[in-house]
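Data card: per-record layout.
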Amino acid sequence: MLQPKKTKYRKVFRWRLKWKAVNGSTLAFGDFGLKATTRGYITSRQLEAARRAMVRFIKRWGKIWIRIFPDKPFTTKPLEVPMGWGKWSVEMYRAPVKPGRVMFEITWVTPEVAREAFRLASYKLPVKTKILVD
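The structure for this 134-residue chain is written out next.
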């Protein structure tokens, strides 16, 4: 699964996902893209599940680009632990996604294949999506 090799700080503050995405809102590499229409966080597990669903469907005919990377650490406390005692350990890494952000791109496939691959991938993601055609 995707996670950073090294970070400057082990734990970070949470921040709000306000406004729409400006960077990464257009197609850059492929002919078809999967764009988020709602905001949220995508974990490395969800990203890997979506990638595997797409790769399994297109059967190595096309090329896939992943345009987001889970580099924001997420910490959790165990159950039945009282308030206080600071932040606990890093549980997973998440990628913040704003509306308008292109998450995946595909090339070298037909529009029907790309549409079906993105439909399968969107089932694995916690945000609503739409398909872009170049």
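Known properties of this structure: The helical segments are 44-58, 111-122. The mean pLDDT is 94.

See the next section for split statistics.
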